[in-house]
């Protein structure tokens, strides 16, 4: 498969995984009676923005490495911490937790559908260790790119869904797992324990080098 095709399918898979998460979180929250203010698919330049169902939808497909769902403030605000009027705070604690967990659980279901139930669940469970196993990362990325080269797109989608879900459920502040840990203090963020706030630095020290290394390995595997 040519490099351009590899890049296209890699972009498509990344966008599919992150967009599915964002759309499912918006759907889960709406089913609980809490409507998002903004659903942003991707990052980078804005391709199109529209209002539908009381929600602002924004498509930023150039950088497919993440999406976001906002429940507070006007859509053009970008607060670093959720204010007291965060709409999710209207929910009971259990439903707030479900709004965080269920979208990632959907990605695990996708992985099980693509890879088979046992393999999909296994890939999810082993995904929790991925950011801590630098020595295994080159081989993992080589095998993933090989799936794309051989047109095994369904397997690649399942594998990406499982690993992304696992990584995002790690108990780190900027990830979904960290949001779950912080739920007891959701309405009183100033009372968040010092140890929890200190995890922000630890998270960055772990994830930023790992993400940079992973991007380098993807580039090396595609362009060599």
Automatic annotation (TrEMBL):
<feature type="transmembrane region" description="Helical">
    <location>
        <begin position="197"/>
        <end position="223"/>
    </location>
</feature>
<keyword id="KW-0812">Transmembrane</keyword>
<feature type="transmembrane region" description="Helical">
    <location>
        <begin position="93"/>
        <end position="115"/>
    </location>
</feature>
<feature type="domain" description="Peptidase M50">
    <location>
        <begin position="27"/>
        <end position="192"/>
    </location>
</feature>
<dbReference type="GO" id="GO:0006508">
    <property type="term" value="P:proteolysis"/>
</dbReference>
<dbReference type="GO" id="GO:0016020">
    <property type="term" value="C:membrane"/>
</dbReference>
<keyword id="KW-1133">Transmembrane helix</keyword>
<protein>
    <recommendedName>
        <fullName>Peptidase M50 domain-containing protein</fullName>
    </recommendedName>
</protein>
<dbReference type="Pfam" id="PF02163">
    <property type="entry name" value="Peptidase_M50"/>
</dbReference>
<comment type="similarity">
    <text>Belongs to the peptidase M50B family.</text>
</comment>
<dbReference type="InterPro" id="IPR008915">
    <property type="entry name" value="Peptidase_M50"/>
</dbReference>
<keyword id="KW-0472">Membrane</keyword>
<feature type="transmembrane region" description="Helical">
    <location>
        <begin position="164"/>
        <end position="185"/>
    </location>
</feature>
């Amino acid at each position: 498969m040519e490099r351009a095709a590899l890049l296209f399918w890699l972009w498509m898979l990344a966008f599919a995984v992150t967009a599915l998460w964002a759309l499912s979180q918006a759907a889960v929250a709406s089913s609980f009676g809490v409507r998002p203010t903004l659903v942003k698919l991707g990052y980078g330049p804005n391709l199109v923005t529209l209002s539908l169902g009381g929600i602002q939808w924004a498509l930023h497909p150039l950088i497919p490495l993440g999406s976001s769902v906002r429940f507070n403030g006007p859509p053009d605000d970008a607060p670093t911490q959720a204010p007291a009027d965060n709409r999710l705070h209207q929910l009971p604690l259990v439903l707030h937790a479900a709004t965080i967990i269920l979208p990632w659980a959907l990605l695990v279901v996708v992985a099980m559908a693509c890879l088979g139930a046992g393999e999909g669940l296994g890939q999810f469970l082993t995904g929790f260790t991925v950011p801590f196993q630098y020595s295994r990362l080159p081989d993992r990325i080589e095998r993933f790119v090989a799936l794309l080269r051989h047109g095994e797109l369904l397997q690649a989608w399942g594998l990406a869904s499982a690993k992304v879900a696992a990584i995002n459920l790690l108990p780190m502040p900027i990830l979904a797992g960290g949001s779950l840990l912080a739920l007891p203090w959701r309405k009183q963020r100033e009372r968040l324990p010092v140890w929890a706030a200190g995890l922000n630095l630890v998270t960055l020290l772990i994830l930023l080098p790992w993400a940079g290394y992973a991007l380098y390995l993807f580039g090396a595997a595609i362009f060599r």
